[in-house]
Write a structure and sequence with these properties.
By secondary structure, the chain is α/β, with parallel strands linked by helices. Helices cover 52% and strands 21% of the residues. It is elongated and about 90 Å long. Bound molecules: ligand C2E and magnesium ion (2 copies).
């Protein structure tokens, strides 16, 4: 190549690089503007124009750091001001412009009282936080007097006035707390106490924390007192049936060699006038109304009680699964009930499994991991129900402390005719093997499907082919028969042998 042709070819390249540079610079500058705009938006409250919680956190941290660097300084006070009930009523009943004006006025009135080093933040719609340098004891009292009298002045509108009583609470740095979260929490506890005692101001003291704990305990007791009798009556309309799941180690003709016997508890509702109602109909209703929580507690209680009685009767080889709906799983109520029941019932670890649907698992992966770790720490097994229907990323499964995956019935039903379903099952078998999880196929109705699944590497089966959901005694008979037959289970006759699709595996 000649030098002339090089320079001819080089020019467009240089110019395209510089064009790209200009384009990137413009993009960066647009992004910077966007970030600055967003930062302004989250740093300042629109109605009052005051800095928000976001700024408060940054400023408080900086202030604490600088105070820590100069021991002996008088410290500062965190004061929380709450507008309370009257403001909520104004907001709900009057025009938005009126509540916005009140917020703006409140900010101005507070600012007019503060010294040059003090700061005010608008942290929630009806809450302001003040950071007052060195203002403690008598000095704080003086500021409070001016502040409260300024805030109690009625807001005058054409034709009417609005008076807003405020409540406030304060905590001192460093006497009450040395961290941002402690100071804000303690000032909030004090403000809560002011509201409860119908006072305009309360200064934090450690005794207030005990009062909060006692209140929470009392609240829990009253919930239990009302809930417990209601839960006892649930058994009049709701009951449980148990569908066996078998973990198999070999197949010889129609005989399965059984390694483990488990069961899934399925709820039944016998409506007093409408008769039986399917869980797929009433579980979503119970979820929407929040009633799934007492129902879930009853269910978990029943399961642990049954499991414990089976084990006491010598059937300590049976495991039991209980379904948890998304709300139940996230509320923490079941977790708490389970922890208490497991501790008191002495059922062996790993005898109980919770089944969570794939979609509820991936809704908020971080929170899910935390909750699942609690379950795992209790020794409860964790199973992912209806797997394959939620389109979740299989590669994320390893994040959770799982023990079992259940292949949704949909894939099992169509295995013989759908090449796609077969490849999904095949990949699930691989994942289960890699992550060392049990794999259960749900809804197995035909012997050919069971054989095909077995050949593909699946070892757990549940479905009408093995058994329909059974009563408590029915399940024990089912288990006793397998044990009596030397841990074998004979598939019902009517097997059509190998199908064309079987051969495809
Ligand atoms: P699931 O957890 O996937 O339960 C399996 C469902 O498939 C059960 O229906 C069971 O009777 C049915 N089934 C089992 N084998 C076969 C089969 O071979 N073929 C067919 N066609 N169906 C089979 P069920 O009892 O109506 O429960 C439906 C869903 O309702 C459950 O799906 C679960 O999501 C929910 N559910 C049931 N009981 C409870 C419970 O106690 N708590 C919660 N939160 N949900 C429950
Ligand atoms: Mg289930
Ligand atoms: Mg299922």
């Amino acid at each position: 190549m000649t030098s002339a042709s090089k320079s001819q070819e080089g020019t467009p390249l240089v110019s395209s690089v510089s064009e790209e540079n200009t384009r990137l610079k413009a993009k960066v500058s647009a992004l910077e503007k966007k970030v600055a705009h967003l930062e302004r938006k989250i740093s300042f409250q629109a109605q009052s124009g005051l800095p928000t919680h976001f700024r408060l956190e940054i400023d408080l941290d900086e202030l604490i750091e600088s105070e820590n660097a100069k021991p002996g300084s008088p410290g500062f006070t965190v004061l929380i001001l709450q507008l309370g009930q009257t403001y909520s009523m104004v907001r709900k009943t009057l025009r938005t412009s009126i509540s916005e004006w009140i917020l703006y006025q409140t900010g101005c009135r507070v600012n007019a009282v503060l010294g040059p080093e003090d700061r005010v933040y608008h942290t929630r719609e009806d809450e302001f936080v003040l950071v007052l340098r060195g203002a403690k004891g008598q000095d704080l009292k003086k500021i409070l007097r001016r502040l409260l009298s300024a805030l109690c002045e009625p807001h005058v509108f054409a034709g009417f006035t609005v008076s807003l009583p405020v409540t406030s609470g304060a905590a001192y740095f460093p006497e009450h707390g040395r961290t941002r979260s402690n100071l804000l929490h303690y000032a909030d506890v004090a403000a809560g106490s002011a509201q409860e005692r119908k006072k305009s101001f309360v200064l934090f003291r450690p005794g207030l924390l005990q009062t909060v704990v006692e209140r929470v305990e009392l609240q829990n007791s009253i919930i239990r007192a009302i809930e417990a009798p209601a839960i006892r009556h649930l058994g009049e309309q709701f009951s449980l049936v148990f569908q066996p799941k078998l973990i198999v180690s070999d197949i010889d003709g129609r005989t399965l060699k059984v390694e483990r016997i488990e069961a899934e508890a399925l709820i039944r509702w016998n409506h007093p006038t409408r008769g039986p109602i399917a869980p797929a109909t009433f579980i979503p209703l119970a979820e929407e109304t929040g009633l799934i929580e007492p129902l879930g507690k009853w269910l978990v209680y029943q399961c642990v009680r049954r499991l414990s009685s089976w084990h006491k009767s010598g059937r300590d080889d049976i495991g039991l699964s209980v379904n948890l709906s998304p709300r139940q799983f996230r509320s923490g109520a079941v977790e708490e009930t389970l922890a208490g029941l497991i501790a008191s019932s002495k059922i062996p670890e790993r005898a109980l499994t919770v089944e969570l649907t794939e979609t509820s698992l991936f809704e908020d992966a971080e929170a899910t991991t935390r909750i699942l770790q609690h379950f795992a720490a209790m020794g409860v097994r964790i199973s992912v129900d209806d797997f394959g229907t939620g389109y979740s990323s299989l590669s994320h499964l390893h994040r959770f402390p799982l023990d079992e995956i259940k292949i949704d019935r949909l894939f099992v039903e169509n295995l013989h005719e759908s090449h796609q379903d077969r490849s999904i099952v095949r990949s699930l078998v691989g994942i289960a093997r890699d992550l060392d999880l049990d794999l259960i196929a749900e809804g197995v109705e035909r012997p050919e499907a069971l054989r095909q699944l077995y050949r593909m590497g699946c070892r757990g089966f549940q479905g009408f082919l093995l058994s329909e959901p059974l009563s408590d005694e029915g399940l024990l008979k089912f288990r006793d028969r397998i044990v009596r037959d030397g841990m074998t289970f004979r598939l019902p006759s009517g097997d059509t042998g190998l199908s064309a699709a079987d051969a495809d595996t």
